[in-house]
Amino acid sequence: EGIVGKCDGLGRALAPRFAPGDRDALLEAAPKAAKALDSYRDWLREGRPTMAGVVPIGKEKYDWMLRRILMMPFASDELVAMATEDWRRAEVFEAYENHRNAATAALSIAASIEEQQRRAVEADDKVRRFLVERHILDVPDWMPRFRLAPLPDYLDVFSFGAEIQMFSPSDPTADFVRFIRPPTPDLGFWGRILATDPRPVVVHEGIPGHAFHLRLIDRHPNPIRRHHYDGGLVEGIGTYVEEMLLQQGLFDDEPELRRAIYQMLKLRALRVILDVNVSTGRFSIEDGARFLSANVPMDYPTAFEEANWAAATPGQNATYFAGKAAIMRLLVQTRQAEGDRFDLHDFHTRLWGAGGVPATLLRWEWLGQDADVRGLW
Q: I need a surface site. Which of 68, 318, 358, 360 has the fewest CB within 10 A?
């Protein structure tokens, strides 16, 4: 609803950012786009009674996708079993953390966007120093920063989910930016983390997670490794660093952040169960939203967005946990092969520097072990 007003608002918000010669064309195109979208909405409404609902891809196709496209060494049943145990493990550790710090006061929510921005700068600095001082991973001096910025009016018109500016090949020196609205008392799951101490989001989305990783990939000398995007590796690294840095002590100074990490670990595991069940028809979108909302726990609107995304993009929600599991499997196999020569910093340097290559292929490349690769076809 209201698409005409939204398109008009988008045109007016973007117009000042266009060159004078293009501004009139933009303002002329906006109502045409609105009319087309209005017509499309009416067509959907009229045809909806005859349309099928969400059509699951089914277990056979889901397993085919895991093997042939994502190159994961796991079938869906195995992945659900692994994720279920990881969920229980994170649930237990969260209970331990709650008991250990029962009297600890909750972190305060930032009073303004400016305060959130300051906290994000501090979080970025803390993470960089920690990685280098603990000899976990080197951070190049040229690596751009993670920062928060007010949501621009031209994005606010059609805003949903997370609005981010992660990486631009045309400007590889640009900072990673997550756009935010002013903090309020009724923030959702992710908004609350960003408004208190954003380190958990920094490590996944910024450094040493997505933004850091993608910029290293963009500088890889091999064009295949530079241009191939592997969602399992990218989301796997983003999820791997959450737990790895928890164990290394990054969050030792703040109990609420440790609780947040355990909740995030639960969410990553529960996403697998959600993804497989929605994709194979065991869950409706509403079933999935209720499942996440009750078990993370998280606010229902965020849970519904997660479940809707799972229905629209089979497999994507599973890549967080599956990618992490594949990386941990590679770490164990590398450590077993190298024995006393194994060094965590060296492992991380090789992993982040490998380009956009699935962990299954890295096992073959590094260790000469091709069992997983032979199982892909």
A: 68
